[in-house]
Structures are given as C-alpha cells and as structure tokens.
Amino acid sequence: MHPPPSDAAARRAAKPLVCYEVEQLPPNNLSLYRQARSGASKVDEILVPPRDGACFEVAAGRFFRIVSVDGPQVGDLNLWNAKDLSERFFSGKTRQLHATHVSTGDRLWSTLPGLRPLATIIEDSLDWYGWDEDGAGVHDVIGTRCDPYTNCLLKSVEYHHCCHSNLTRALAAATGLPLEQAETHVHDVMNVFMCTGFTRDTQQYFMKASPVRPGDFIEVFAEIDLLGALSTCPGGDCGSSHSDDKTPCYPLKVEIYEPAAGALQAWRSPARSAYSRSHGVRD
Hints:
Layout: H1 8-12, H2 30-38, E1 41-48, E2 53-58, E3 63-68, E4 75-81, E5 84-88, H3 91-97, E6 107-109, E7 117-124, E8 137-140, H4 148-155, H5 163-175, H6 179-185, E9 190-198, E10 205-208, E11 217-222, E12 226-232, E13 252-258
Helix pairs in contact: 5-6
C-alpha cells in the first residue's frame, strides 16, 4: 500500500454529492395505481417450484404480486418488454435513480436507449425492515444472480439450478428460443426478498437470512407489456449455503391482477427516452 499524501484527510473530507436530481423524475402515480388495484381481480397465478424458474406475462396496466408460500424464500426477477427482449430491466440505473434496495414507490427502469419505467412497486409487506445494524436491506438491485460459471470458478463443480440457469431455462421454454440465445437475454436481477449489504471492514457483498415469511409479498404495476421470469434461488432464504442443494427451498407464487374497466382511463404507458441518439455526430 502506498503511504497517504500529506493532504489525505482533506481529500477524504470531500462532500458527498447525490448523482441525480431525482426530484425531476416524472411522478410515480402511486395513488392512482393503488386506487385501481383496490377494484382489481385476479386473472392468473403461477407457482414457481423450488430451485427452478418460470416465466409470466403481464399486460400494461395490470399488476403482479410475488408471494412467499410455505417457507422463507428469495427470488431473482428478470423483466423484459414483451414485444422487444432487447429492452429489459436495468438494475444499475435503477440503483442510481433510487437506491441499492428498492421498495414502495420505486420504479424498475429499462435499459438504454429506452430508459423508461418498466414497472412501479406499489406495495411491499417488508417495507418495515429498513436498514439493520449490519447495513443490510431487502430487495436489492446490487447483486447479479447466482450463476453456474462463478460456481464452477470457485468450487470446480457444475451446478445447474443457479438462478442464471433457472431463468435461462424458463425464458427458452416460454419463447421457443434455443438455450444459447435465451441465455444472452438473461440479465442482472432484482433480488426479491433477499437481505444484503456490504461489510463495513472489507466492503464485500454479503447476504443474510431474509426476513420474509409465508404471506409476505411485493406488488408491482406493469407500465408496459411485460414478460417476467422468476427464479426460486437455491440459497432458500440466503442465510447459509448458496448454489447447491443443501439449503431448504420453497416455492414462490406470482399472482396477476387486472383492474376494473375504466380504472386507469387517464393513464398511458411511458414513452421511450426522448434523447435524439445522435451522440454528437449530427445536430
């Protein structure tokens, strides 16, 4: 390690500056969504088995709820524009615009060049958790997803029920894409119900047992037509083992709700970014 310069203290004392002025973001319409949700009816439900994945479709203007059933379980969520898989959930920009962990009122943003809300979180039964003494929170957008490549690198074994593989199989089955093509569309996730943070001494990403219990849920409004994929993580509640079959795992349920006719009459799907895409090459 290099010795600190004479002005090290002054450099470290620089004032932190939040990168984006999020007050300028369009309003999230939470009151309208909740009003529409109050009269909505369930139109579909999908049960995702333990250590597996499944896809589901949610039309724009509908809601989907991810529910814990049977036991504490973490899920890895991917979202795509149902009509264009190249537009998908952008965890990094969502993290920059909101926080490392998301909850009620936060939006799940799409990749460039779209950069628009794919979905808005309208309810979260774990919003009481906040930040614990370890600096951990729930529903993170900082981790990627457990995958067989990292598992092979660190453990020299092949394990096929990592979330990356679960999502790949689910997307291939839902779209008819070959496995190799489907895999290229699998992306960094929202870690639903997962409790995570960074260690204070080494700043390493850590997980701890999720506070989720049967009946807990997170509910989301679809801003555009969505194709979703959810993996029930082989880590179970992510409080012990990971990427193997040692930890107890449980299913997760996805419920889809449709609001009553006319409940969203004044609402429109958000447009893609208005940026010209000239990138300075032409005026």
